[in-house]
Recover the amino acids of this structure.
């Protein structure tokens, strides 16, 4: 009964525009170290690994003017599992008329609890780095 009421309240919140209170478990940030600036306009795809090891597409977003995506994976549900984020870097560098060695970058990681996860990358046309951020 409580779960049903909770779901109905969530649905009402979405209908009446109360979604600004939604918490998200996963975020990302891309910094272009060749310019020292955030990398805006990079398409990023989030996928989750299924039991059979295939990948299920969750959603695709684009980094904002600060190079960030802050709203992957609503915290309302259990998100444990293995995930992959793909950063489509070739498109980003083509917009700047720069060639790149990495047409895309895949980062695979595990979410094992309900804490917040941050997966940032630093990027250049011929290199990148990633780490578990906070």
């Amino acid at each position: 009964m409580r779960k049903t009421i909770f779901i109905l309240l969530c649905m009402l919140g979405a209908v009446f525009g109360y979604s600004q209170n939604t918490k998200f478990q996963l975020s990302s940030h891309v910094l272009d170290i060749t310019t020292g600036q955030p990398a805006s306009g990079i398409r990023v795809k989030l996928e989750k690994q299924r039991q059979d090891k295939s990948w299920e597409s969750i959603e695709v977003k684009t980094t904002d003017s600060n190079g960030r995506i802050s709203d992957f994976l609503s915290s309302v549900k259990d998100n444990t599992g293995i995930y992959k984020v793909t950063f489509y870097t070739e498109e980003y560098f083509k917009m700047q008329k720069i060639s790149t060695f990495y047409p895309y970058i895949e980062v695979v990681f595990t979410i094992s609890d309900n804490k917040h996860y941050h997966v940032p990358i630093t990027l250049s046309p011929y290199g990148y780095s990633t780490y578990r951020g906070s």
Remarks:
- The chain has a mean pLDDT of 88.
- The helical segments are 2-15, 89-95.
